Amino acid sequence: MDNDELIKRLDYLSEQLNLILPSILMIIFAILIVSNIRLLRMQIQTVSLAALIIPRRTKQFKMKKNDHQLLRMLLVQVFLLVIFCIPQAIQKFYITFRSSKTYSEYEDAINRFLYNIEVLLAFIASGMPFYLYTLSGGVVFRKALMDLIVMVYKKMKC
Fold first, then answer.
1. Residue 50, by phi and psi: left (phi above 0), alpha (psi -120 to 50) or beta?
2. Which residues are CB-neighbours of 124 under 8 A, at least 6 positions away?
């Protein structure tokens, strides 16, 4: 195995571990969370009637407002993570398996420009949960953020 082939394989492995695997894991866990919430809706409860225990299905299960917001934020986060990381995976795949012929300065400039945009999108994906939770997370996350800011301010003041 020559050096170029080894570099291509390492790049491909890096792409799989850093870009595609986290997206797939996020999708899997999001599906598991959604299915768990659906199971909670159909959870079997027992009602005691004198000494007799009768199982019944609860169809009146309502998701709490916070649970609904968390589920919506999870789905939005998974969607945005995939959207922001897929272009970098495609670019990495293209760079790894394109021919090694020399390109014109114009083509190289376009490739560098696209690569920089994709890296920027990956950085946005890394910071996205903070903005997603604080801006659209409702009162829960904003209150937690404000409590954290107040606590840090008090510790720095003392």
1. left
2. 84
Residue for token digits 């299905």?
57
Q: How confident is the model at residue 151 (pLDDT cuts 50, 70, 90)?
A: very high
pTM for this structure?
0.57
Identify the CA nearest to 85 among candidates 133, 143, 150, 27: 27
Shortest CA distance to 134 belongs to which of 121, 144, 149, 124? 144
Burial 100-109 (b: 16+ CB within 10 A, else e): eeeeeeeeee
Query: Sign of torsion, CA 122 87 98 116?
Result: negative
Amino acid identity at 81:
L
CB 49 within 8 A of CB 56: no
Where helices occur in 42-138 by DSSP H, the ranges are 65-97, 105-136
Give the containing element (helix H, strand E) for 153: helix 139-157
